[in-house]
Design goal:
The structure is a homodimer of 405-residue chains. Chain A is α/β, with parallel strands linked by helices and 405 residues long. Chain A contains 13 helices and 13 strands. Chain A has a seven-stranded mixed beta sheet, sandwiched between helices. In chain A, helix 1 packs across helix 12. At the A-B interface, helix 6, helix 9, helix 10, strand 9 and helix 11 of A face helix 6, helix 9, helix 10, strand 9 and helix 11 of B.
Chain lengths: 405, 405
């Protein structure tokens, strides 16, 4: 029998490590012949666009290289399967492709939308007596998947963000004038990544002096008061803000139109920068960490990369044990020493749901997070991979563009 | 006798390494007693705000830590000395402070503006028979200082930019749809840092497909043609653009006003993003590498950090040999193997001047750079420091905020 692996949703630093984990587990499993990679997530299976991974990942060196390569080596997609009762065409295409290649297990690496695919496909397969198991392997830098303690990809994003915010704190404090630095961090609905900036406290850094999450109730008036209060204490004020907070003041949000007549969509960081400049007149800068948050594998968390590998391998074992319609998840046994277990749960518990940052970890005044958050985050960013470098830059594993058409 | 060290201008990853180089050279030089650090550049000497560095940098470990700490540990300033013939007050304050502390050499680490300070101070001292030597140690991520082959701080910035652009290339290519990614890189007048993105070619990456420098003649109409041409070849187009290019089309540049009535100053990256969206309607994103370019010491170039140390030490030796009004510079002896020499030149050759990226290293169509650039850049980004980590993040050296008031 053969198995297939696909990657879906937004890129992370760990999604390729899960691919390698699943691939190498399959290699050492008697009875598994080919391991197929699906190009661009489920789209590859729909279009019968599969590659035999053994032809591309040939050596242990290749696997190590792939583990330090960010993003999805097989490409990705944002494809939502239709309701099979309304439209089953695409399900038939998928099952045809799987049957044709003798594929009896599909590992789908993705976020909560991808778990919807896992759920729908496994339900369809069971209903139609198709001999294929569908297993979801989580990944997302947003850390917003339910049930699991955390998601692969999050730890590396958090390590990049913490490292970078620490450096920005150094950068922001060089001049003798008062300044405000606003750092906008990813997370449309959940504030996990923004909250994780609290870890720099453990290194004796007082920043971020203010942290705003989508889970809090952001008020522009209160924000101005917060800045005033903290500025009295800190010459170089540093603020971490989630891209997902909603400004309650229309004057910040809208109204900008460029010369093409397009409404200009600026991020909250830029909006708050303008607000601070207007109200305080001091030196102010906003910084978007942008896609670097999800692709800076040069400063990935070894814990994250290793766990991503393990959960990929565990997914293969679950499929072979006959499980289907499951999401593999981490269960935290202990913070110190940090111990996790990997178990499977029904994909219905993770699909289309979001796990928010706990309100009880936000300080009463809503401008920071408490030590429960610190204890939760710290283990996830530990350890560094020794990178293979080439010409002074990290080396990446590549599959030729022609293959990934 | 005593010496003093000050840091000036914008932060880099290497400026503290030059401080350590000068400090440790002074420690082993018979006849030098105290090594003073001036808080916030020349302002510290004007205000008599000096610290005895031996009280703060106590061990070899401290020195190693300081070498991996970005930004200016002593703070910085942007202070231009007046013409001494018009206003000599501040010069008298400076000379008083130096005399009072028995300081006979001042090492000033900074960019081309700081070399103006070196020049003016040494001229004044010589004219007034003050027994003090003034030596400039270059630093700037812009690499735009004259005479020197390159500036300390540039190599680390280039290594960060190359590493990050490589990762963004991975990130940008995951979906099957056409996309344009525009990366805005620092350099108001000189395009060195933007041009340095060409190094990723040596790792088999086709990007950046287009590179625009302030030294080229940017034309919006030509830009649109360039994008059209390259998009036919590359599904995920990646463009590196210097913040300093001037758009010739007013419709891109101006007109945005926020609800406070302020004119909104967006960077060229955002302007070109809007232009591409307007003309092509495809998926487009602009990314500003922002201050991370100058403070990401976690991925600094070992070559850069080591050279910054050496040029700091050489500055002390030059001062002790009686030189004054000089800037220490690198002379490149060979690309492969990479060999440099450190010599001193009159500060007048570096003060208030800018070295532009050579036009003959730009390709004839103005959209990329040639292999001469590659040969120049590659040695500067080689080698990695093994970082001392703490709690999963790089450890930084700190002087208490109270001291740096």
């Amino acid at each position: 029998m053969n198995i297939a692996i696909a990657q879906s949703g937004g890129p992370t630093c760990a999604i390729n490590s899960s691919l390698v984990g699943a691939f190498s587990e399959a290699l050492k499993t008697p009875g598994i012949d080919a391991v197929f990679g699906s190009i661009n997530g489920i789209e590859g299976i729909i279009k019968n666009n599969l590659i035999d991974l053994k032809n591309f990942i040939r050596t242990n060196d290749d696997m190590e290289l792939l583990k330090q390569t960010p993003s999805t080596v097989l490409g990705s997609c944002r494809y939502k399967l239709p309701d099979p009762d309304t439209d089953s065409t695409v399900y038939e295409q998928i099952m045809n492709c799987l049957r044709k290649h003798d594929i009896h297990a599909l590992l789908y690496i993705g976020g909560n939308d991808s778990m919807d695919t896992v759920l729908k496909l496994s339900d369809y397969a069971q209903k139609h007596n198709e001999d294929v198991r569908i297993i979801g392997i989580p990944k997302t830098i947003d850390n917003d998947l339910c049930v699991t303690d955390h998601t692969p990809g999050f730890g590396s994003a958090a390590k990049y963000v913490a490292t970078t915010v620490q450096e920005i704190v150094c950068d922001s404090s060089v001049y003798s004038v008062e300044s405000v630095t606003i750092i906008e961090i990813m997370g449309r609905h959940a504030g996990w990544l923004t909250a994780s900036t609290c870890v720099i406290r453990t290194n004796g850094v007082s920043a971020p002096h203010l942290i705003y999450l989508p889970e809090g109730n952001f008020s522009t008036a209160q924000f101005i008061e917060d800045v005033k209060r903290e500025q009295a204490k800190h010459k170089a004020l540093v603020i971490a803000v989630s891209e997902g907070i909603e400004l309650d003041d229309d004057s910040c949000r809208s109204g900008m139109v460029d010369n093409f007549g397009h409404k200009y969509l600026s991020g909250v960081g830029k909006q708050l920068e303008n607000l601070v400049r207007d109200k305080f007149g001091c030196k102010v800068r906003s910084i978007e960490l942008n896609v670097m948050q999800r692709c800076s594998s040069h400063i990935c968390s070894k814990t994250d990369i290793d766990e991503a590998f393990e959960i990929g391998a565990a997914g293969v074992r679950a499929a072979l044990a006959g499980e289907t319609g499951k999401t593999m998840v981490f269960k935290r046994i202990s913070d110190v020493p940090y111990i996790i277990d990997i178990v499977s749960v029904p994909a219905s518990e993770t699909a289309n749901k979001e796990k928010m940052f706990p309100k009880e970890w936000i300080t009463p005044d809503g401008t920071n997070v408490n030590d429960n958050a610190l204890r939760y985050f710290l283990p996830l960013i530990q350890g560094e991979n020794v990178l293979r470098m080439r010409n002074g830059m990290p080396e990446h594993f590549k599959i030729k563009e022609e293959v990934l058409k």
